[in-house]
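ok so i was messing around last nite and threw this chain in just to see what happens. nothing serious, just curious
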Amino acid sequence: MSEFVNQEAKKQEEVVNTLPRIGSPAPQFEAETTHGTIRLEDYKGSWLILFSHPADFTPVCTTEFAAFQEIYPKLKEMNTELLGLSIDSVYSHIAWVRTIEEKLGVKIEFPIIADLNKEVASKYGMIMPEESKTEAVRAVFVIDDKQVVRAVIYYPMSAGRNMEEIVRLIQSLQTSDQHGIATPANWKPGDKVIVPPPGTQEAAEERVNDDNVECIDWFLCKKEVK
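result:
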């Protein structure tokens, strides 16, 4: 028995050590969904939010799916797609989506992966054995148009996700890519952004005397971007 436990612990350690990290290539997959068979490479050229939920026909997940659908048009304007996942069958997904439309008046337009064999969930570290061995947690993976993992967020099963923050995160990442800057705490589009700190004493002197930037100190300067 102890040998079996050790083997299982080793497997879990191996999975943890191979989980996708920020800046690493997103693990490739092919999966059955409510929109047919989908591969990660199908999304190349667009950004993707891959998110998991514990189970169909559960209260918090139902509110989340309605909320994800609400932000979906905005995400599409930002060249960003949605892809859900849970360890349920495609038939369960279809029935649940139909119930959401019937009871809440919300038509879910994005696909949901039916990950019964936990293959995708395992690749992305969506299962936390301490939380549940049979359900995925509320994980969010932001994958860019080059299929690189750019952000990872985990929520416990008891806490529904904040959709405004997910939209803001995409806006921040895309703005940073476009302008080569960073965004401060609580940033939103239209706010000033942070200019990368200078790497030399001479550059620091030039920075604080630059009328195009607002400097609190030589290492903390902001500017506007359009």
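not much to say yet. Residues 13-17 have pLDDT under 50 and may be disordered.
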